Each structure stands twice: as C-alpha cells, then as structure tokens.
Amino acid sequence: MEKYNYGVIGLGVMGRNLLYNIADHNFSVAGFDLDEEKVKELHDGATSEMKVKGSTTLEDFVSAVEIPRKIILMVPAGKPVDAVLENITPLLSPGDIVVDAGNSYFEDTNRRIADLAAKNLHFMGMGVSGGEKGARTGPSIMPGGDLEAFRLLQPMLEAISAKVGNEACTAYMGKGSAGNYVKMVHNGIEYAIMQLISEAYDLLRRGANLNNDQLYEVFKEWNNGEMNSFLIEITRDIFQQKDTLTDAYLVDKILDKAGAKGTGKWTSEQAMEIGVSIPTIDIAVTSRIISAYKDERIQASKLYSEKEITSPENTESFIKEVGDALYLATLISYAQGLALLVKASKEYDFQIPLQDVVKIWRGGCIIRSVLLEKFYSAYTKNPDLSNILLDQDISVIVKEKIASLRKTASYAALNGIPALGTQSALGYFDAYTTESLPVNLLQAQRDYFGAHTYQRVDQEGTFHTSWQSANN
Ligand code: 6PG
C-alpha cells in the first residue's frame, strides 16, 4: 500500500488549503474527514501534480501515513480535538506525532501532551495564522513542544510557510504549549490593532467627515508608507467594496455588533493571571463586548443625546495626526503583547525566543507589518529586552509620534467619540514611563484600612502604621 508523508485531519477550508499547500511542496498527503462531500472536494480540487488521498475512515487514513506518522489536526479547538484524539490514539504507533494546528487553549495542549506522552506519542500545539488564503499560499506558523518532533516537521513547515525575502515565517516557539501561547498573544495583538484602526476610522468619518472614497485614499496612502501592514491593506479595500443588495458601500450596511471566538479574552485573562499590563488588548476585548449591547446603546444615546462634534480646523493635519497616533498606539499594543510573552516564557518555562517570534510575524500572519522589522532589529541587538519601549531606536519613533497620540486622544475625549484603545495606549505609555506613580497613596490607604503594610523609599523592610483618624 502506498504511504504518504503527512496526514491532515479535518478537510474544511483551512484543512484542505493547508493540505494542498503541503502537497504543492512535493510532500504526499493523506486527508481524513468523516464528511464524504469534503473528501470528494479534496480530490476534485487537487492538481494532477499533487499526491493526495482522502479517506472517510480513520483506519484507512492512519495506515496510509508513513511511520513515524506526522498528523496535523485542523479541527475546531475544544471538544473536537479531544474527540479526534480519543479515536485516533489507539491506532497510532509509538513515536508518532500529532500536531494541533487550531487555536487551542494552551492549558488544553499541556494536558494533551501529557496524555499522549503516556502512550509514547508526541503531541504538539502549533499556531497557524493567515486565514484561508494564508493556509493555501503561505501562513505564519508557530510550532512548539517536543524539539525532536519539531525537527522532523521543520523542512515541511519551512517549505509551506510565508517567506520574507528568503526567510521562512516559521520557527520553534519553545517548550510545551508555547506554540499555542504565542498564537493566542498574536490574536490579542490582532484584537488591539483592529480596535485602533476602527477608532481611527470613526475619528476620520465623524470628526473630519470623510466619506468611504476619501477613507480609501487615506488608508491607501498609509499602506504605502511606514504603516504598511495586512490590516491597513484590507481596511483600504473594505472602503471600496460595494453592497450587492443596495447601492451603498457594504461597510455602511454591516451591523455594529462584533463577534469573538475567545482568543482575545484568553490573552487578557492570562495577562491578569501572571501580572502583565496589557490595557489596549483588554480594551479591545471589552469594546467588542460593549458593541453587543446595541439596544441599550440606542436607549442611552437618546437619554444623553448625541454629542456636538467640532470638526478639526485643518483636515490634512488631522489625518496626519490620526495616522501617527494609530501607528504609535499599534506599536504600544505590540509592546504589551510581547511583554506578556516575555513574562509567560519565564512563568511557564516556555523559553520563547522573542527574536524569532517577531521574525516569523513579519509575513503570512494577520498582524504582519513593516513595523515588525524594527522589533526584529531591537531583539537582534538585545534578545532579553523586557519591553520594546526600552529600545533606543524604538524610543526615537515614539518621541516623534507621541504628540499626535496625545492630540488624537484629547480630540476624541473632547468630542465624545469613543477611542478607548487609543486612549489606553497613551495611558499605558504614560504609566510605564513615569518614575513616580501615585500608588504611594494607594499603599497608604491599604495599610490604613487593612494593615496591608507598605515599603519605604528610604529604608529596606516592611512597615505598618496606626493611622490617625481626624474623627478620633
Ligand atoms: C489568524 C486569525 C484567526 C482567526 C481569529 C478570529 O491569525 O489567522 O487570528 O485565528 O481569524 O481567531 O478571531 P475572532 O473570531 O475572535 O475575532
């Protein structure tokens, strides 16, 4: 019986596209899906050069993959992954490798690594970013886990991933569930940038009264310069898309209620859990939540009435300011996400190479941007950088743009245009760069009512005071 180099379980669009991408690079691939229709689609869509085979029975699929088997799961995160593992593990041989390429929660991956290790099987969590198109033509791939198992997959992963120059957008992300963790934080940053872009859009359309054609031009110009990125690029294109049901632009017909699958929320929960401040990501998560309360928002907008918006005096300079503010707030969002990875790497002993993280995010993934080149240089100079805001070259960019961020955040506040992400990025920057925060007072309060103690600026040790009440 003919043997195939790789196996892919789950032949939905993502699974099928990833399978074709592997097959395009001269690897033979077996695919499995319970749905006969999907298996048929796999065969129908394959080119004559591809060596692919689809199965609807796990036995047939497993026996078609060469040993040690390298099987990639492309099924929804959560219970479906456990269901597949339960069915497939009895059919596998010691040393086989199962790679979960979905957005799985890292703790689930830890549990599965242990479960499969007890059966002499390798389990790996691997983040894949780039959507359907990326899976087919070159995603950014974030694998983690057993290093030896990774080495067996590495040539294929490097072949199928996106390239920047001739550098592959994939690298080993660290031990255990590091691959899933890095992808989770990637998505947290994705949430923040999407929120910031939406706020810039709101400021331009409601503040400067730009229409969709003008917004298209602004985003086009932004994308041609230092703000070049996937998310700016697709935003530019969105402003051109006409509705098929009416004469309007589609963006104006889309209901303002955001969905979410959970990776942003996990990022925020994790940051709280291990003590890292990522307010712009938190705000992005909570802004999606507030958007869902459409009926209440309508009620409240009537009660408090629409705020008067004063248009900026000079539209050109306002657009420039909003662009610079977006650029800097985006940079600060990456800084928060990367700081979370630094802490998580220590906390969970992932040993995440930050330099490789930013290197492989430069292409293929949703948060790819030219800005990542600057972070790559920063980590190349200092792989142990705890926060990219501490890098000298980054500080030059920040100083150049900070006035625009302040003006944009103030304009939004004064005109009642919600810009929580933009303002949180500024607030984070101000807090992070302030030597003396007012929490001396907060510590005094804690000690006053709860004897929680405090430390002093002039002596070592822990102190408590019997605070005097004026009413005594
Ligand atoms: C990617 C995306 C992908 C997915 C998000 C969407 O990197 O390719 O991040 O993983 O589009 O999970 O997340 P929400 O549905 O939560 O916005």
What is the fold's blueprint, element by element?
Elements: E1 6-9, H1 13-24, E2 29-32, H2 36-45, E3 52-55, H3 58-64, E4 70-73, H4 79-88, E5 97-100, H5 106-117, E6 122-129, H6 131-137, E7 140-143, H7 147-160, E8 163-164, E9 167-168, H8 178-207, H9 212-224, H10 230-238, H11 263-274, H12 279-291, H13 294-304, H14 315-347, H15 354-360, H16 371-381, H17 392-415, H18 420-432, H19 439-450
Parallel strand pairs: 1-2, 1-4, 2-3, 4-5, 5-6
Antiparallel strand pairs: 6-7, 8-9
Helix pairs in contact: 1-6, 1-7, 8-11, 8-12, 8-14, 9-10, 11-12, 12-18, 14-17, 14-18, 15-16
The structure holds 6-phosphogluconic acid.
Keywords: Gluconate utilization, NADP, Oxidoreductase, Pentose shunt
Catalytic activity: 6-phospho-D-gluconate + NADP(+) = D-ribulose 5-phosphate + CO2 + NADPH
Binding site for substrate: 103, 129-131, 186-187, 191, 261, 288, 446, 452
Explain briefly what this protein structure is.
The protein is 55% helix and 8% strand. It has helices at residues 13-24, 36-45, 58-64, 79-88, 106-117, 131-137, 147-160, 178-207, 212-224, 230-238, 263-274, 279-291, 294-304, 315-347, 354-360, 371-381, 392-415, 420-432, 439-450, and strands at residues 6-9, 29-32, 52-55, 70-73, 97-100, 122-129, 140-143, 163-164, 167-168.
